[in-house]
Amino acid sequence: MTHPKLARALGAAALTAGALLLIGALPAFASPNLTASGTGTVMTQLPALSVPSDQPEGVAVANGITYVSNVAQHAINKFDATGAYLGAIALGSGSPYPTAMVASADGSHLFVTDGNSTGSVFSIDIAVSPEVVTAFPVAGTPFAISLSPDGSKFYIISNSDALVYAYATADGTALGHSTADGLYETGFHVMASADGTKVYETMRDGQPPYTTGGIRILKASDLSELGHQDLPNASGLAQSADGSKVWVGSTDSASQSVVAELNPDGTFTGRTTAVSTSPQTLVVSPDGKKIYADSGSLDVIDTATFTDSATAMVTGDTHEAALSADGLRLYATDALNARVDVISIAQLTLTSPAKVTTGSGATTFSAQIADGTTTIDDYTTNSVKFDILNSANTVVATATVAPNAAGAAAASIDLSALPSGTYSVRATLDPVAGTVVVTAAGLSVAAALAATGVEALVPTVLALVLLLGGAAALLLSRRGRRAV
Question: For the chain, which residues make up each domain, given as ranges?
Answer without folding.
Answer: 4-26+458-483, 48-347, 355-454
